[in-house]
Amino acid sequence: MKENDSEKTYNLPATSSKRNILRSFLVWIRQHVPIIIFGIIFALAPFIRIWAAEISSGPYIVQFWAFAKVFQTYGLDFYRYADAQLAIFPNKGWGFVYPPIWLLILRLCLFFAPSSQVTYVAGNAIANPTWRLAMKIPIIAADLPIGLLLYWGVPGSKRRKDNLPRRMEEGKTKTEVIRCLKRYVAREVFGILHDLGIQPAVQDT
Fold first, then answer.
1. 62, 107, 131, 157: which could form a disulfide with 116 (CB 3.0–4.6 Å)?
2. Are residues 147 and 192 in the same domain?
3. 169-183 pLDDT, tens per residue?
4. CB 152 within 8 A of CB 145
5. Structural domain that includes position 106
6. 93: alpha, beta or left? (left if phi > 0; alpha if psi -120 to 50)
């Protein structure tokens, strides 16, 4: 009996340590819920968009295909035909008004989809799935760093997202944190109105 008691006593610290680790992990998750949600969305969004890329289309997709084909054929002489009057263009008059770097990206997309083509169904030009995917990959890839920049770089955005967990760490309740945020918004709005020369009516409470 004594041996069993000693074994149980010996196992208690290990069990307590595991519980503390689990508790700390749950607390960390609770404090970082906004960032975790953002990370999940950030990770899943590209896969959803890539899956949808092949099954969605529009007039710009076939027009970009035509731009890429004309650039492949005429090279640096492309801008002579950039007004989109050639027979290859599905949308006549929809000229190339985009930055030159986009033309190079379209040509690179065509390199990865050399057999891509446009077919006409009931008078509508439709690009094959290979081109749809190849053309949209650079756009999806560019949206990822832009999303990060918007999340981390917009003035005050990160502070507002992390404000709730940080304030709750300081001992404030969720209601108190929301009240503080309302006061902050009220001060900001009052300052803007004051700068515009508008005197808001203040009601005594």
1. 131
2. no
3. 777 777 777 777 777
4. no
5. 57-153
6. left
